[in-house]
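agent: user wants the structure for Short-chain dehydrogenase/reductase family protein from Mycena chlorophos. delegating to structure tool.
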Amino acid sequence: MSSPALPTFGFSTTAEEVSDALAGELAGKNVLVTGTSVGGLGYETARAIAKHAGLVVITGHNAERLQLSVEAIRKAVPGAKVQAQVLDLSSLASVRKAAEEINKDVTPLHVIVHNAADTSSVYAVTVDGHERQMAVAHFSPFLLTKLIFPKLLASASDSWVPRVVLVSSKASSMGPGIDLSLPSLNNPAPDSPQVKNLFLRYHEAKSANVLFALELAKRGVGKIRAYSLHPGTIYTNGLKKDAAIPAMQSMGVLKEDGQPNPEFTTWKTIEQGAATTVVAAFDPRLNDKSGAYLVDCVEANDQRTDICSDSANAEKLWKLTEEVLGEEFVL
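agent: tool returned. relaying tokens verbatim.
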């Protein structure tokens, strides 16, 4: 008997609609989602997945806020199996500690969703000496994936290849591209364009997400599938921060009153914004498209910049990241 045809997902599809449509794919799956504060994309992703999945592990750097997310998901989805894991992506020591705790559990992980990002719009250097936006969006997710990679491999079966999802942004195409030189990647000079214009650094960090997915897909062929995506333009907490508002107003993203500018783009709700992440994590129609970039729930490699489509750039970023972290990631 053939399986029923899956619905077409698009701009207006919500994460819960995707979860319901792919309930059979989600059943029994264990998923880790980073950056899951209530009201954000990661939270909505975790909530929608928890409706049908076996276990959802959510992470955040603040234990109290993380527990609020756990309670909110359990209230929204009675019976959901949700587990909290404290993880501060601005600290490599915290990443290592979290990975150690995750690895103690014998439960395999079927999917990792790297959703967290630094949206403070304030230049900062981490305790490890790395510029914070790149640390949170790329260095730490790279290290976490490496450290818990055996947990992913343990979920593989004849019917399932583990997935890693990188939540990038259209911002990856809104700039000159990522500077793949070691000093700039790690910590740009104080007088560099990336420090003077922190949106440019966000652009680089989101470009790194796309390149990481591309190289992970290539190196992990047969073992793992990887995808990056643009969730849409959404009025999240990151756009409401005082430090971010002036830059967003200057670009026309926000109006003078700080509210979303409908003339800039067609905005998505948070529920719509999380849909593409759930698609990337579970849609079987992507099985032969590892490395793809998704927009509005479908493959959109044509919207990926030339820089972010270049396999040589992806390989270079991988090697530079290994150099920054001081260790190799061999699949």
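agent: one observation worth passing along. The beta strands are 30-33, 55-60, 82-86, 111-114, 163-167, 225-230, 293-295, 298-299.
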